[in-house]
Design a protein that fits this description.
Largest sheet: 3 strands, antiparallel
Number of strands: 3
Strand content: 25-35%
Order of helices and strands: EEEHH
Strand order of the largest sheet: 1-2-3
Structural class: alpha+beta
Radius of gyration: 16 Å
Distance between the termini: 48 Å
């Protein structure tokens, strides 16, 4: 049984949506295989998954599906 490095909770394999930050872009990787701690939620990726992230970010111009994300500086939020 695998244990979380941080809280020693049980780790399970799941498919998740991973938000990946690359330069000034955010990329959503859907149905991403990951190992996730059931107790604290810490997420671990196998090396092969990280390689896919790297290859995908190198070819962002080929990604066809996009979404709009509102961006608001935090100081502005305090005035709402």
């Amino acid at each position: 049984m695998k244990k979380c490095y941080f809280c020693k909770g049980k780790i399970v394999e799941k498919k998740i949506t991973h938000v990946h930050s690359w330069r000034d872009k955010l990329i959503l990787f859907r149905q991403t295989p990951a190992e996730v701690c059931k107790q604290c939620g810490e997420t671990y990726f196998k090396p092969g998954v990280v390689e896919v992230f790297d290859k995908a970010t190198a070819h962002l111009e080929k990604i066809k599906q996009t979404i709009q994300v509102p961006v608001m500086p935090f100081p502005h939020l305090a005035k709402i």
